[in-house]
Amino acid sequence: MGGFTAVLEESELGSGAMRAVDVEGVYVLVGRSKDGQVCAIANTCTYRGGPLNEGERDGNVVTCP
C-alpha cells in the first residue's frame, strides 16, 4: 500500500465528523476537525483494541469506547 487512496467523497465528512473506512483491508478512522482539516489514523485503539469510530471525540482526541 502506498500513495493516496480515495475512501469517500469530501461531502460525506462534515465538520467534527469521524468515519471508519476500509482501505485495502485495513480499517482507518478518517476525521475532519472543526477548522476543516482532514486526518486519518488506525481505527483500532492501541491500548484496548476497541474500534475508535465508536468512541468519543473531544477536539482532536478520540477516546476508545
UniProtKB/TrEMBL annotation:
Descriptive protein name: Rieske domain-containing protein
Residues covered by the Rieske domain: 5-65
Species this protein is from: uncultured Rubrobacteraceae bacterium
Pfam families tied to this protein: Rieske
Cross-referenced PROSITE patterns: RIESKE
Swiss-Prot/TrEMBL keywords: 2Fe-2S, Iron, Iron-sulfur, Metal-binding
Coiled coil: none
Source species taxonomy: Bacteria, Bacillati, Actinomycetota, Rubrobacteria, Rubrobacterales
InterPro entries reported for this sequence: Rieske_2Fe-2S, Rieske_2Fe-2S_sf
GO terms, molecular function: 2 iron, 2 sulfur cluster binding; metal ion binding; monooxygenase activity; oxidoreductase activity, acting on paired donors, with incorporation or reduction of molecular oxygen
